[in-house]
Amino acid sequence: MNKFNRKIILLLFLTLILAVFLGITHGPVHFSLSELMLTQNKYILYLRLSRILMAILAGMGLSVSGIALQAILKNPLAEPYLLGTSSGAGLGAVLAIIIGTYKIYLPFAAFLGAILAVILVYNLAKQGNKIPVQSLILSGVIVSIAFSGIIVFVISLSSNEALHGVIWWLWGSMQVYDLKLLLIVGFIVIPCVLVIYVLAQDLNAISIGEEDAIHLGINTETIKKILFFVTCLITASLVSICGIIGFVGLIIPHIMRFVVGPNHKILIPATCILAATFMIICDLFSRTLFSPLEIPIGVITAVVGAPIFIILLKSKQKVR
Amino acid sequence: MDTLIKIDSLCGGYGKETVIKDVSLEIKRSDFLGIIGPNGSGKSTLLKLMSRVLTPIKGKVTLEEKDIAKMDLKEFCQRVAFVPQDTLISFSFNVWEIVLMGRIPHLRRLQLETKKDFSIAEYALSLTDTLYLKERQIDTLSAGERQRVIMAKALTQQPGLLFLDEPTSHLDIGHQIQILDLLRRLNREKNLTIVMVIHDLNLASEYCNRTVLLNEGKIFKEGTPSEVLTYQNIEAVYKTVVVVSNNPITSKPYIILVSGVK
Q1: Chain B closest CA to A143's CA: distance in Å?
Q2: Searching chain A, which residue's CA lies closest to the CA of residue B153?
Q3: A232, A83 in Cβ contact below 8 A?
Q4: Tell me, what's the pLDDT at A93?
Q5: What percent of chain A is predicted at pLDDT more than 90?
Q6: B161-165 and B17-28 as β-strands: parallel, antiparallel, unpaired?
């Protein structure tokens, strides 16, 4: 790691600490840090801390999944939901509500839906013992479209009021209904992110080209399968408790590639920190902008993310 | 000279389609072997079968009497490197990062490169005359520069055997000679065994000590360039009229093409 990158990491880390501080003190009601320490405010502190934890997990998980998929698909525009997890989770949630399960089972139904969608995508893409990249993208898109169609179909047939909530849920929220779920997701997301980091060097080689990676002694088919499995596990577990949050997995890796370059050994940690900060700030906006109303965080990330992305694309075109 | 690679009645290709049909061949240590033949004759496929990108349908390839399919892939890549025809890289790695990737087969996961690795990479850059590109981004280089950098990456693997798939096809004559001269030097001074697929028969004749002429997935003729590059062999395989004369300086066979339309 060179001096420049070390400074960047330090800077990013300081912004993260600042974001956490803002996230704790700001909300519908503003508190100073010492006020939050009082016993009567303990519940608010706990609520805000759990939201921040959720935001950090979602940011890390989505952005690192984005990086891994971008490398194995050799496409800088790939995003974590490309392989069908989001629509699968959506369908699972819609069906659960129609069947009329308790709210507590909703995340499990969504998770199940996401995993089923991914298994479908994987088997559609598989050719013999290999998973060619193009067919992976294609089958991901096909399954996503088909599932989204079924979701709309089911919603339009049903008169169930609760389904209105699904649309809200699909756009994402950092609200933590159950601390146990947060812990479970944490236990899934953090090890998966670490697995991807351990494969940083393999990702470097694979992003040059699959055959080039084989010539460097990397068993690309195995690595691709591991990464596919791990990214799907991350996105499926995240989407099932906080809905679909777009753009994070796309822009944050892009911005960081711009700053520290494409070397995954540095790109992954830098992206993790920036994505966590970004999510905390977006969540802050989502609960304070129109408080006491809460705007789905997916709306904020899209509204903030789209312009940043356009600026990035335009500035890149100018360079070339 | 002892045998480095032995190919034993090898069949292979893509999916169920067999491209290479029953090829047997021995490659000796410090050979500079050229694989030639018309389009679709299986040159690149043979190279992919020898470098473990493809798995044989039948037969086997051995490296120093060990079946390569049973070797650990990393161990294999410590001894064998590959330079592809052209590498288009969609991520902006800089040259130094690309070349250092040549150390991957020698390092464990997450193990950091040591001074020794850096000096090996630096040496490879100086050999290929690309040290001045070290800080540049790979996607801003010209085809010739990029090919030399990719070659530096392969040399950073410190292989005993180097495969090249038409390494000069995108280069002008100056860069062609530069790359091939470098290969000749490595072959003579460092005993590097070279197996190269090449379209240009004259370059094959000039640089290789042995040539293999492939036709329809089989070896048509194998031997020194003077034995293989006769007008009879060339006309039979390429279905083209040629005149074979000799290079006035090196007296190696020199192929002159003749138009079919007068």
Answers
A1: 26
A2: A216
A3: yes
A4: 83
A5: 42
A6: unpaired
Mutate to test the interface with B, among A199, A215, A315 (most CBs of B within 10 A): A215
Answer for the pair B212, B36: CB distance below 8 angstroms, yes or no: yes
pLDDT digits (tens, 9 = 90+) for A29-79: 888 888 878 878 888 888 899 999 999 999 999 999 999 999 988 887 788
Whether chain A has a CB inside 8 Å of the CB on B117: the answer is no
Nearest to B21 by CA among B57, B70, B53: B57
Domain ranges of chain A: 3-319
Task: Tally C-beta pairs within 8 A across A and B.
Answer: 77
C-alpha–C-alpha distance, residues A248 and A258, integer Å? 15
Task: Please determine, for residue A317, whether its predicted confidence score (pLDDT) is greater than 60.
Answer: no
Q: Answer whether residue A220 shows pLDDT above 80.
A: yes
**Superfamily per CATH, domain A3-319:** ABC transporter involved in vitamin B12 uptake, BtuC (1.10.3470.10)
The number of CA neighbours under 13 Å toward the Cβ of A205 is 25
Phi and psi, residue B211, nearest 5°: -135, 145
> What is d(CA B157, CA A212) in angstroms, rounded to the nearest whole number?
13
pLDDT of chain B, 262 residues: tens digit per residue: 588 999 999 999 887 788 999 999 999 999 999 999 999 899 999 999 999 999 999 999 999 989 999 999 999 999 999 999 877 777 889 999 999 999 999 998 888 889 999 999 999 999 988 999 999 999 899 888 899 999 999 999 999 999 999 998 878 898 899 889 999 999 999 999 999 999 999 999 999 999 999 999 999 999 999 999 999 999 999 998 888 989 889 889 999 888 878 7
Residues of chain A with C-beta less than 8 angstroms from the C-beta of B82: 211-212, 215
From chain B, the residues in CB contact with A262 under 8 A are: 91-93
CB contact under 8 A, B87 and A216: no
Query: Using alpha carbons only, what angle is made at residue A290 by residues A286 and A293, rounded to the nearest 5 degrees?
Result: 80
Contacts of A219 in chain B (CB under 8 A): 73
The ipTM of this complex is: 0.91
**B3-257 carries CATH number 3.40.50.300:** yes
**Distance (Å) from the C-alpha of residue B251 to the closest C-alpha of chain A?**
37
Residue in A with minimal Cα distance to B137: A261
What token pair was written down for B68? 């390569």
B-chain residues within 8 Å CB-CB of A261?
A: 92-94, 97
The distance of A2 to chain B (nearest Cα, Å) reads 13
B89 close to A (CB below 8 A):
yes
Closest-CA residue in chain A for B50? Answer: A215
Q: Which chain B residue has its CA at the smallest distance from A73's CA? A: B90
CA distance B28 to B23: 16
Each domain of chain B, given as residue ranges in start order, spans 3-257
Mutant choice from B50, B73, B137, B141 vs A, greatest count of A C-beta within 10 A? B73
